[in-house]
Design brief:
Layout (H helix, E strand, L loop, with lengths): L8 H24 L2 H20 L3 H6 L7
Helix pairs in contact: 1-2
Length: 70
């Protein structure tokens, strides 16, 4: 089952940019041995990266938001 796309345009680019920022933050947290920050930033990077790649967001689906037609 393939979910219907509900993330597009500027929203998708912003999610990808924030995924990169969170990835850099997670790598910095590894170097400083701050595992709480690593976990938080890592999960954020994975979630936003998934949204950007698949063009689907579960929260958008639940709230009825569709940004594919921007």
């Amino acid at each position: 089952m393939i979910p219907e796309q509900n993330v597009g345009g500027t929203d998708r680019l912003l999610r990808a940019a924030f995924a990169v920022v969170f990835t850099v933050l997670a790598v910095t947290a590894i170097r400083k041995r701050n595992y709480y920050l690593l976990l938080s930033a890592g999960l954020g990077a994975i979630g936003l990266g998934f949204n950007a790649v698949t063009c689907f967001c579960g929260l958008n689906e639940a709230l009825g938001i569709d940004t594919t037609e921007e």
